[in-house]
Amino acid sequence: MVRFANSVESMRRSEIRDLMKSASSPGLITFAGGMPNNDLFPIAEIDEIYRGLSLKTKQEGFQYCPTPGYPPLIQSVKQYLREKGFPVDTNELIITTGSLQAIYLLAKVLLNPGDRVVCEYPSFIGAIAAFNSFQARMDTISLDDDGPVMEELEAAFRRTPAPKLLYLTPYFHNPAGIIYSQARKKAVIEFLKDQDVVYLEDNPYGEIYFTEQALELTRPIKVITADAEKICYTGSFSKILGPGMRLGYLLAPPEILAKCELAKQSVDACSATFTQVLAHEFLVQNKLQAYLEFIRPIYARRLKSMLHTLEQSMPSGVSWTKPAGGFYVWVKLPEHLDATKVLKESVQNGAVFVIGQTFDPEARRNNCFRLAFSHVPEDKIEPGIEIIARAVKKFM
Amino acid sequence: MVRFANSVESMRRSEIRDLMKSASSPGLITFAGGMPNNDLFPIAEIDEIYRGLSLKTKQEGFQYCPTPGYPPLIQSVKQYLREKGFPVDTNELIITTGSLQAIYLLAKVLLNPGDRVVCEYPSFIGAIAAFNSFQARMDTISLDDDGPVMEELEAAFRRTPAPKLLYLTPYFHNPAGIIYSQARKKAVIEFLKDQDVVYLEDNPYGEIYFTEQALELTRPIKVITADAEKICYTGSFSKILGPGMRLGYLLAPPEILAKCELAKQSVDACSATFTQVLAHEFLVQNKLQAYLEFIRPIYARRLKSMLHTLEQSMPSGVSWTKPAGGFYVWVKLPEHLDATKVLKESVQNGAVFVIGQTFDPEARRNNCFRLAFSHVPEDKIEPGIEIIARAVKKFM
User: Fold this and answer.
1) B239: nearest Cα among B214, B281, B209, B270
2) Which H helix or E strand runs over A295?
3) Which of A371, B79, B264, B288 would give a disulfide with A329, using CB separation of 3.0 to 4.6 Å?
4) Average model confidence (pLDDT) for chain A?
5) What is the pLDDT of residue B18?
6) Predicted ipTM beyond 0.90
7) How far apart are CA B333 and CA B354, in angstroms?
8) Chain A residues within an 8 Å CB radius of B259
């Protein structure tokens, strides 16, 4: 018998793998995959970039790069962030293997077993997996349509021992779909001033806004509180280029970032240089803005179709968020109704989604579910939602 | 002040980053970088592969893949391993972000703070970093020209508590340059039969052999003991395609591999799909063998030049390994001589290498150093070694 580490007991199997399988089952309409649409990747742009690479640059792409990242990409990401008002000159940047690795590295350098992390309910499944893998205790604060419920946030920080990490995803939340209101964001910022905690702001979807009004709300806390000492920020190339590049970044105060770099030396030494070369060219050849302008209305149209069908087909007593960006709609059933029942019925009739329990750091609450409108074929949104609505009705 | 995790205290800064910097200093001849030569990457082959990719395959390359890896690559790596006699059907395979991540994941699922790992002195710097990051205690066993000193191996396993992990690099060792003899490998296999320990066999350089005789010695313990329950094996694409692809793999018994996959879900979800697509095509288009046949004599010629110059220029009392493959020569100074002194003198005169202490899990012994013949321009080997030999003579 193999004697595994204690931390293995805390690792919960995320359902991602099974969902990927079901997502590829022929005939099944899937709202499960939290991923961009395959037809929308900027393949022509990357083809053009690849053709234009010099031999020397390709050679660099085949080689190791320094642990913090391919130096030209570090500069181009800093420039991208500088234009948005980020304090790139007083902070340091590291390129990570997806933004998940940024969360993981920060967890690795901060958390002893039993340490407390405060996060939202619902929360990003990858972050839950990372915190669990270090045997952290997760306290959750509920989200309403404007952001975290402040009373719960305050209560979480009154409990002892003091939390070491606060993890939030304020912009087009996965899975909740919401964006924090100006007032709520301000309340969070005020609250943070009095707390001795590392705050990690996770923003993979901020560029996928559908209205000018939503754009205004995407100004990050890291930008607004540029001189704060313990605010870390992670972003990703997964939604603005492709998850298969496995590229994200962490912008953090130098003391914290130095430890994360040290941790990364033990995890994978550096992220793929080859895809970093491509991402750098994507940024410096100014292909990002045009690409974002191309995909935003497409995702907005998909969302509109989903919201319209939900409105038409869901029984009363069921509610859902009306996102202004991102990939997800979060559906709330009456409290007594178990989303797993609905899922089983729904799968039998040909449509699949992810149950709410998956996104609960406490793995408990299950009267909600997530619908991704990003990956499903657009003409399947209406029939798929109708299948799910019929399944819901059966149990109401 | 940020309150970091206890494990941060165990993380030692590897000198990789500083070495990368010094390696790119103009005018400095560097034997430091443990990496392939930029001029030798199979760029024409990858260009051809990229041009031939279908739109659908490219789309897959931009997308997430399942945590264990891009399914076609899993199959093609299994086929590659099957042809070498590996027990791929009774074990499971996961694609990792470099073989370093395979070591890291295994450490993550096995090691509690204070757990014992038995490894070689000298040992791979990345593995030392991974074990340190989990606060493991490392017991070292010395290497002679034939492999690990068996008395030391036996002694390490007599101490309590029992070690949880045995980590060896039997083939063209980094940094020692040796390959285990048949007799010593047999002794290790016999010894392992009686031990309740997970054994990780790390083999990134096995394909870089320079003689037929050396090839015979590269048959892995994992192949020879195919039915053993706790033997894990990691390989890498870093030396047979390019480290910038960040691809390696772990072949392990299903129980162990399932935990590693769970751990990987929290670390980076999956390795870069884009580079996995390229690696798969590299294998199935049969480009690997031709590429290996192209690079082996080039690296062999570089080694020959290094050994010849060492013979000509080093004073008596200094010895070094005569590798039959891989990238490294390991130089032993008299016990009283500190390699750091030699390094400083040598750098002042224009040549750099890595001191032995870097490869000592106990960070103590420092009368040796590593010379990489892989990355330095070939015509700089002779003048570079002469600089180092003069520096050695100064302190003899």
Assistant:
1) B209
2) helix A288-313
3) A371
4) 95
5) 55
6) yes
7) 14
8) 4, 8, 11
Instruction: Using the structure block, give the residue that is written with the tokens 């979480």.
Output: A156
CA distance B173 to B327: 9
Of B91, B36, B391, which Cα lies nearest the Cα of B255? B91
Q: What is the spatial distance between Cα A139 and Cα A155, in angstroms, rounded to a whole number?
A: 10
Instruction: Give the whole-angstrom CA distance, residue B99 versus residue B174.
Output: 13
CB contact A162 to B (< 8 Å): no
What's the token pair of residue A148? 């975290």
Q: Is A224 on the interface with B (CB under 8 A)?
A: no
- Please identify every stretch of chain B with a pLDDT value under 50, giving residue numbers as ranges: 16-17, 20
Residue A63 has its nearest CB partner, among B38, B112, B133, at B38
List pLDDT tens digits, range A54-70: 999 999 999 999 999 99
A26-42 residue pLDDT tens:
789 999 989 999 999 99
* Closest in A21, A67, A246 to B272, CB measured: A246
Residues of chain A with pLDDT under 50: 16-17, 20
> For position B120, what pLDDT does the model report?
98
Contact at 8 Å (CB) between B30 and B375?
yes
Mutation target among A166, A267, A275, A280 for the B interface, most CBs of B within 10 A: A267
Q: Which pair of tokens denotes residue A349?
A: 């009739």
What does the pLDDT read at residue A18? 55
Say what the pTM is. 0.97
- Residues in B closer than 8 angstroms to A104, CB to CB, are 266-268
pLDDT score for B339 = 96
For A260, nearest residue in chain B (alpha carbons)? B8
In this structure, are residues B268 and A13 in contact, taking their beta carbons and an 8 Å threshold?
Answer: no
Pairwise CB contact (< 8 Å): B246 & A59: no
Task: Give first-to-last CA distance, chain B, whole Å.
Answer: 48
Q: Which of B41, B266, B278 sits opposite A11 (nearest CB)?
A: B266
Looking at beta carbons, which residues of chain B come within 8 Å of A263? Answer: 8, 11, 133
What amino acid is encoded at A71 in this protein? P
